[in-house]
């Protein structure tokens, strides 16, 4: 029985030290992380939602300005 325990321990140590080939994690953008945080019920989430709304509004306004300036 002792020999079986030693073999199991050795196998566990080898597997624990083996290099793991996890699939590469896709890095999420700051916008995606903020969107998830804003959708949560964490304290400050309403402030994050407001900041995202303001950012969207400013981006839309800048796009309108850019398109108006591009027309002849």
Question: Can you walk through the features of this model?
Answer:
The protein has 72 residues and is mainly α. The protein has a domain at 30-72. It contains three helices and no strands. The protein has helices spanning 2-17, 30-39, 45-70. The model has no long low-confidence stretch (mean pLDDT 83).
Short note summarizing the structure:
The protein has a domain at 30-72. 72% of the residues lie in helices and 0% in strands. It has helices spanning 2-17, 30-39, 45-70.
Please give the structural blueprint:
Blueprint: H1 2-17, H2 30-39, H3 45-70
Helix pairs in contact: 2-3
Oligomer: single chain
**Intertermini distance:** 88 Å
Indicate the low-confidence ranges by residue numbers: none
Derived structural class: mainly alpha
- The total of helices stands at 3
**Form type:** elongated
SSE succession: HHH
Mean pLDDT: 83
Strand content: under 5%
Radius of gyration from the alpha-carbon trace, in angstroms: 26 Å
Total strands: 0
Largest sheet: none
Helical amount: over 70%
What key attributes describe this structure?
elongated, 3 helices, mainly alpha, 72 residues, single chain
């Amino acid at each position: 029985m002792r020999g079986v325990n030693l073999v199991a321990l050795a196998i566990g140590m080898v597997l624990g030290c083996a290099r793991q080939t996890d699939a590469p994690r896709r890095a999420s953008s700051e916008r995606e992380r903020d969107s998830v945080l804003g959708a949560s019920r964490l304290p400050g989430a309403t402030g994050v939602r407001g900041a995202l709304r303001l950012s969207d509004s400013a981006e839309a306004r800048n796009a309108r300005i850019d398109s108006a300036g591009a027309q002849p």
